[in-house]
Design goal:
There is one protein chain. Helix content is 36%, strand content 11%. The protein is an alpha/beta fold. Helix 7 links the parallel strand 1 and strand 2. The longest helix is centred in the N-terminal third of the chain and has 14 residues. The radius of gyration is 21 Å and the shape is elongated. It starts with a helix and ends in a 5-residue tail after the last strand.
Length: 284
């Protein structure tokens, strides 16, 4: 596959199929040989459905099929979509701050894929142009949006009126696309809502999951319940802020941090959600 990525197809690829695939990422060039060998050029590919990409083109990676279809829309400069017509064919999109959130984001991806969820996690450096739009289209196509909130993750969002920061862009897109947003808090302090742009301000009131390393399975179970709708997400935190008890562990004043708790007993059997990872009310 490495050889196929480096091959020069210019003499047999008059339609620019390989160039198109490379705009999505260098790993997509691995499909060029088989596609051209099957008589499929760029123009033909642009008409293919998800099922045809799977059966006729042999592209078994669902994330790759989704990104190819998004790339088709971008190549046609078709940036319009409606919430009614957009197919939510991806289970989870994970958003994270690269400086300190990649490890947790990758861990969440592995855990969720073990539970048979399709997960999009961008691990390639962001590029300008069509790829950026493909990334936002992936959010629009996702049922759930997991926001990894590590220390200082939203600092660059403060005052970012022009949406230059990618965390801001992704949150705003998820809010507009009616994704089920699930924040995962790890040593995180939520900024004052008035310091954030209006396009992402609602995120400050969302209920979520507090990540505790010693109770990974319990945390993933809680995220799974959010995804399946068994735990109420959405903008609920304000209700708990208003009713919190001063000084208690359930208080969510802005100076509180979502500290990673180290277990005092490595053999402890308890994984009660009210002790470990709720961000909001204790389980009822």
């Amino acid at each position: 596959s490495s050889l196929r990525k480096r091959t020069d197809y210019s003499s047999v690829d008059s339609s620019g199929l390989n160039d198109f695939l490379q705009t999505l990422g260098p790993e997509y060039s691995v499909y060029t040989y088989e596609l051209l060998n099957s008589g499929i050029d760029k123009e033909t590919l642009l008409t293919f459905s998800d099922e045809q990409l799977l059966i006729d083109c042999g592209i078994t990676n669902k994330i790759h099929r989704i990104k190819i279809q998004h790339g088709v829309k971008m190549s046609r400069e078709d940036f319009s979509y409606s919430e009614e017509s957009l197919e939510k064919n991806l289970d989870v999109f994970i958003s994270y701050r690269r400086s300190n959130g990649s490890q947790l984001a990758s861990l969440l991806k592995v855990h969720l894929e073990l539970r048979d969820y399709t997960v999009f996690l961008d691990v390639v450096g962001l590029e300008a142009g069509k790829f950026d739009n493909n990334l936002l289209q992936s959010i629009r196509s996702s049922k759930n949006f997991i926001l990894v909130c590590t220390a200082g993750a939203m600092d660059r969002c403060e005052g970012d009126i022009d949406q230059k920061d990618w965390i801001h862009k992704e949150i705003a897109c998820a809010l507009n696309s009616q994704c089920n947003i699930i924040p995962v808090f790890d040593n995180f302090v939520m900024p004052e809502s008035e310091k954030l742009p209006e396009t992402m301000r609602p995120i400050t009131s969302y209920n979520g999951v507090r990540w505790i390393h010693d109770y990974q399975e319990a945390c993933i179970d809680k995220i799974d319940r959010f995804i399946r709708g068994e735990v109420s997400g959405g903008p609920m935190m304000d209700r708990f802020l208003a009713s919190s008890i001063t000084g208690s562990q359930s208080s969510y004043g802005r100076q509180n941090t979502y500290q990673r708790t180290i277990s005092q007993d490595s053999n402890a059997n308890s994984t009660r959600s009210d002790d470990t990872f709720t961000n909001g009310p204790k389980e009822q």
